[in-house]
Design goal:
Layout (H helix, E strand, L loop, with lengths): L3 H12 L18 E6 L1 H7 L12 E7 L20 H7 L11 H15 L8 H15 L1 H7 L9 E3 H12 L4 E9 L1 E13 L5 E2 L20 E3 L4 E3 L9
Antiparallel strand pairs: 1-2, 1-5, 3-8, 4-5, 4-7, 5-6
C-alpha cells in the first residue's frame, strides 16, 4: 500500500520534470465532446516491444479526452494526493503499460495536464479527483471487455474478424458508433491488429456517435511515445491474445 509520504515525494519529483510552467490558459478552449479511449494491451505491447511488463488481459484506459483542446491550464499541476483513494482502481484500470516501474504517476500527470485541465470546464470534471473518478466510472459503465466477450468477439491467434462486424456489434449494444483503431503489423503482408477503441460522450456525459476524428492516437507525446494507431480500414482485423504478442 502506497504511503502518503511516498506519494508526496513522487509528486515533488513529477513537478520537476520540466513540464510547461505558468503559461496560463490557452486561447482555444472550445471543445465539443469527450472521448473515452481504451487500449488493448496485447497490441500496445506488440508495437513497443521490450517496454511492457505483465500487461493486463483486459482493455485498459488510455484517457478521457476533450476532442479539440489540450493543455488548457498549464499552471494547474497534477497532485497524486488528491486521488489517493482512487489509486487501487487507477493502478488496475489505468496503468502505464510502457513505464510500469514509475507506478503510472507520470502517465496520469500527462493525461491530467494535457486533457484533464480542459475537461475541467465541466462542473462534473472540475477537479483532479472528479476527472479521474468520472473517467473510471465511465470505463466501468461501458465495460468494453465484457461487452466484446458477450458479443463473441474474443482474442485469437488465428481468427480474423471484419472491422465492420466489430463496429456493428458495438453499435447494437451502445447505440452509438465507436471509432475502431488498428496497428499495422508487417507480417509478409500488412495485418491489422485491433488496438484502440474510442467511445464518445456529450458534455452532459451522454453517449454519442464518434463520427468525426478527435485527437488522433499518433499525437501522444511526453509520457507516451507516438503510437502508430489509425482508424481501421474496412476488412479483416486480428484481435491478438495477450500471450501471443510476437506474431
Amino acid at each position: 500500500m502506497t504511503s502518503p509520504a511516498f506519494l508526496g515525494a513522487l509528486c515533488l519529483a513529477l513537478s520537476c520534470l520540466g513540464s510547461a510552467r505558468g503559461l496560463g490558459r490557452s486561447d482555444d478552449l472550445e471543445w465539443g465532446k469527450l472521448i473515452m479511449v481504451h487500449h488493448w494491451p496485447a497490441t500496445v505491447c506488440q508495437e513497443v516491444r521490450g517496454h511492457c511488463k505483465d500487461p493486463p488481459s483486459y482493455w485498459t484506459i488510455h484517457g478521457l479526452w476533450p476532442d479539440k483542446s489540450e493543455a488548457c491550464n498549464r499552471s494547474w499541476p497534477f497532485n497524486p494526493q488528491e486521488i489517493k483513494d482512487l489509486l487501487p482502481d487507477m493502478k488496475r484500470y489505468w496503468p502505464d503499460l510502457l513505464h510500469p516501474s514509475n507506478c503510472s504517476l507520470q502517465f496520469w500527470s500527462h493525461e491530467w495536464k494535457k486533457h484533464g485541465t480542459c475537461a475541467a470546464q465541466l462542473d462534473a470534471l472540475n477537479s483532479q479527483w472528479k476527472y479521474f473518478s468520472k473517467s473510471l466510472d465511465l470505463y466501468k459503465e461501458l465495460a468494453l471487455s465484457s461487452v466484446l466477450q458477450k458479443l463473441g468477439i474474443e482474442p485469437s491467434i488465428d481468427r480474423y474478424y471484419q472491422v465492420s462486424d466489430i463496429r456493428d456489434a458495438l453499435v447494437s449494444v451502445y447505440k452509438v458508433v465507436p471509432k475502431v483503431q488498428c496497428f499495422l503489423l508487417e507480417k509478409g503482408q500488412e495485418v491489422q491488429l485491433l488496438g484502440q477503441m474510442e467511445l464518445c460522450f456529450s458534455k452532459d456525459l451522454q453517449l454519442l456517435n464518434c463520427t468525426h476524428a478527435g485527437e488522433p492516437a499518433a499525437r501522444g507525446q511526453g509520457a507516451w511515445p507516438r503510437l502508430g494507431l489509425h482508424v481501421c480500414e474496412d476488412g479483416p482485423v486480428l484481435y491478438p491474445p495477450l500471450n501471443q504478442t510476437k506474431l
